[in-house]
Amino acid sequence: MKTTQSITTLPPSPADDRHKRMLTYTIAMSVRVVCVFLLFVVHGWWLLVVALGAVLLPYFAVVLANNVSGGTPADVVRPGAIVPVRPPQSTTRRDDAAQSSGNDE
Description:
Layout (H helix, E strand, L loop, with lengths): L13 H25 L6 H21 L26 H9 L5
């Protein structure tokens, strides 16, 4: 019986994957821009928190954007039936008959 391929076993399309990564990067960079603007507004130890966000967010944004798989890899089921390949049959009977017919020297 043939197994049918479910749409849930397919990986996301490259366009959907690229869109998701671009959206993640844009959100992270938007938070960084907010951190840069907050550098001019906040005082005290909050300034350190905002500065760390402005400095470290680009690194994490790039790491998140380069995460291509984005989750658990799905096994793609090959469509169609699998055709078993049998090894070639040996010719031992013909070889045995040729050796016993008098080729012993």
